Amino acid sequence: MSVSTSTLEAYPQRYLDAWNQRDIATALAVIHPNVHWEDPLLPVPLIDHDGAAGFLGGAWQGFPDLRFEAVGDPLVDAASGRVASAWRMTGTHTGEFPAGAPISGNAFTVLGTDIWEVDAEGRATSVHAYYDSLVLLRAIGLA
């Protein structure tokens, strides 16, 4: 069964809201158990809920005030079940992230775009995050 256009249009906000709620169960509900997730800060793609939970938990620990905001309207490719959306990420580095990194207390703002492949149940089977990780690392004093 293919994913509906309305599900694709709504997905980016559901995903960003899940990040903003800082609740593992809520976040994992919008991600397929066998997700393929690529992010500039990850050395290898995540491939399941365990990896996703670790990444989410680490980000929330390092940046307790982490917040995502959609920028503009999503771009939908219904034929392939994909949707893309630009976002703005803000936060303050008040916890340890990445592991072993000194806490800087610095605030940051990073702009990026995600592309998701979404299944008929409204879960991402693939997440590809695109942003300049150097902007983030410089802002928190790690580059």
From TrEMBL:
Residues 13-126 form the SnoaL-like domain. Gene3D superfamilies: 3.10.450.50. Pfam families: SnoaL_2. This is Polyketide cyclase.
